[in-house]
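re: ur question from yesterday

yeah so i grabbed the chain u mentioned. its 365 aa long if i counted rite. heres the sequnce exactly as i have it in my notes:
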Amino acid sequence: MRFPYIAQALGISMVLIVSGCTVAPGLKSPESVAVKKVLVDSTGQKQISVSPLKDAIRLNGSAEASDLPELLTSTQAITQYKIDSRDVLSILVWNHPQLMKGLASVSESGISTGITVQEDGYIYFPYAGRVYVAGKTIEQVRKIITAKLSKFIKTPQVSVAVARYASKRVYVLGEVENPKMIALSAYPLTMLEAIALAGGLKETASTQTAYLLRQGKRHSLPLNALLNSGRVEFNINLQEGDVLHIPDNVNEKVFVLGSVQKPMAYRLAGGRVSLSEVLAESGGLDPLRSDASKVYVIRGNINKPEIYHLDLESADALLLGEQFLLQSRDVIYVASSGISDWSRVLNLILPNIQTLFYLDSLNRR
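ran it thru and got these structure tokens back, copy pasting raw so excuse formatting
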């Protein structure tokens, strides 16, 4: 069996949930969820909201990481390129062919040749001598060399360009076709451009989340929002020293519980996966036991979950189910007919979901 521990957990959950329904007879059924409702668990302390599925659809692609706004602000600013060691410069003084040594060319190996900035930040140019260029822009270097040459040449016209960028690097690792180091240039390099330069995503790559290591801090980036919902603001500019890691999708699953034909763990692979698609993969609702008006998606931290409700008997149910995009670790629960108090059932479900996640973690070892 593909997921032995998961299968056990699904079985345990089904038994406990169904048995829980028999101990709560006659309780009042919640009305159709049209507005957000807040439920209190059996301890009277934990408040859990139940929202219409439409709320989550409006939030599809929203960022989860609390530090993402700061990350976006810090990466979107475009600054002038600062030259540093290992960069290769092309320097041309017009009408002075004797100074053509600084003109870049391409060697037989395909590498641009010119004047390489040394590790100490200096270059050497005829008549100008040793020039410190590290940390300076192209225009600043042009002015410095022009001033030095003015002692020997009347009104020198100097052109400076970077022939090969090599000082500032980012790294793309993980589930890409060609993990590599990429040199930053004068033009911003976005996350998607870096992935493309690394050959694109593998079939085994996550399309939910990417991780960025910047200055010792690890950030979660909502890759699904960018790829599936068109949230281009998450296509951040990379900075020097960034490490972009694309994880695999082995652990990205959603779980289907309750009154469906086939309780299952469904692996999110290939990007966009809707609620309707996963319900169809599970064989649909059990026609004898299910209550089509009570389909729930449980999302987020098990200690403080977000719960969304869908009434499959409503006129717009098919459209909503197709628009609702699932995220890794979502739990879909279809209530049985005759279940009257959702908050009571919730107290039975959440501990078993915790068990499910624990057994799934054992399965991954």
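noticed a couple things. The two ends are 16 Å apart (CA to CA). also The first helix runs from residue 4 to 22.
anyway ttyl
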